[in-house]
Structure prediction request, 150 residues.
Amino acid sequence: MKPILELKKTNMPYQICLIAGLILFGLSCFLLYRNITFLKTSERATGEVIELKKIHRSTSKPTYKPVFEFVTKEGKTIIHTSLSSSNPPSWKLGEKAIYAYKPDAPDKGKIVTYYGVFGWVVALACVAFPLLIIGGGYFISDWYLQSPIS
Prediction:
């Protein structure tokens, strides 16, 4: 019986797919663990959108970044500008949001939305799974078809 992952030049693209898929899946699992741990151990503050910052682009229509204002449990006011922008705006002035932060670093928090917390986890997993299926499927089918039938 031959090993499942035999190194040959003819199957190099499948090896690359499998290795890249494993790396991306591992990174996705790490980010999932880190984000869940952050959410479990963080404080929460409720705030609202105080401004929609207009971002001018030279090639297209302007986009809008929401600017949030939160007050922590300690009474510190946090102004948080979202990293993403959109047109039309995804937030409205006065709309409420939940902000998760560490008490020792309240400026480095996150807006608690599904994509704000798990966006990269999902994106990496969506790339990793097809690579794992292509690379892993090749080696499993090659091993299965080469093994003697008993």
